[in-house]
Amino acid sequence: MKGILTLVGLAALAAGLLFVGQGLGYVRWPASSFMINELVWVYYGGTIAVAGLIMIAFAQR
Question: Which ranges of the chain does DSSP label H, i.e. alpha helix?
């Protein structure tokens, strides 16, 4: 269970950081993404990344 929660947390962290990067316009992949330069995705991505960090921290306890 610990390993699965860590993997899910890492996936959520990676996805959240991707969302933040696209929302800020730093990550322009894929080029046709509707998330590029849209500030709302920074907030969604930040929330997902924090949730991933919480899962990782919980799994390590």
Answer: 2-24, 40-60
For the entire predicted model, the pTM comes to: 0.90
CA 2 – CA 60 distance, rounded (Å): 7
- Domain extents for the chain? 2-60
Amino acid at position 60, single letter: Q
**pLDDT band, very low/low/confident/very high, at 61 (cuts 50, 70, 90):** confident
Look up residue 59 and give its two tokens: 């799994």
Q: How far apart are CA 57 and CA 61, in angstroms?
A: 7
pLDDT in tens, 15-52: 999 999 999 999 988 888 899 999 999 999 999 999 99
In this structure, are residues 13 and 5 in contact, taking their beta carbons and an 8 Å threshold?
no
